[in-house]
Task: structure prediction
Amino acid sequence: MEPSEKYLYKYKGMYFHPEYVTPELIDSLEEFEIRVSDVFLITYPKSGTVWTQNILSLIFHEGHRDETEDIHVIDRVPWLEYNLNKLDYANRPSPRLFTTHLPYYLVPRGLKNKRVKVIYVARNPKDVLVSYFHFSKIVITLEEIPDFNIFMERFLAGKVHSSSWLDHVRGWYDHRDEFSILFLTYEEMIKDLRGVVLRICDFLGKELSEDDLDTVVKKATFENMKEDPRANYETMPGGLLEKDKGHFLRKGTVGDWKNTMTVAQNERFEEVFKEKMKDLPFNYVWNNEEAI
Result:
């Protein structure tokens, strides 16, 4: 079952949504003017993107920490390839924070100067698959596929938005020496959020007081993000969510794949992925008991 052309088209090895990203835009990003102070968050979809966006916003913006500014995280840490709110990136004050799902070979050339900070967040692919499946039900720009088995086969074949999870993760890891990059995992954030925030601050050279650090960690918990309209994408522009079908932030846990995948589906998944993942360095955690 091939992806619907209404929702996806493939360009330079990557699937994009035709309404929001054109080939011309992707080509233009190669020459996007980079500042040394820029920070780029890189993820494959459903790997902790919004969570890390929120952490970065809390670290860099006092008005987010003390709630004196009502600015959505999509404007604090906007998408490079999906400029939904038509922000003027060229005239944004430094340091600029950006988010992207792009593979290593499509990001702006300037990121390879090894001075621009890049944070890559990965998540175990079984949970990515299940989260992606539920996500496709509530976002109108994604094709809803009611049959999980069909969705899983599309995911395994890389015929989904942002293409192959394995190619995305492996590409960034194999080319890590071309960037100044910090690798994190969703599972680490579940297990030790404070430790992850400290690692991010250290990598970015940001010093926070103990009080500010405590505030960042507290406000970045999954439960608090669900209650914060600035952080949870429930108020995404353009009415992109069908709210009667679910919430943008769902469970924030590890091992939810067990509640959806059958034994046979799990075996099929491991047949495709397990061997290919063996030489990746990420310490993937597959269930919640291991994460806490």
User: Anything to note?
Assistant: The chain has one domain: 9-291. The two ends are 38 Å apart (CA to CA). Strands lie at 9-11, 14-16, 39-43, 97-100, 117-122, 180-185. The longest strand covers residues 117-122.
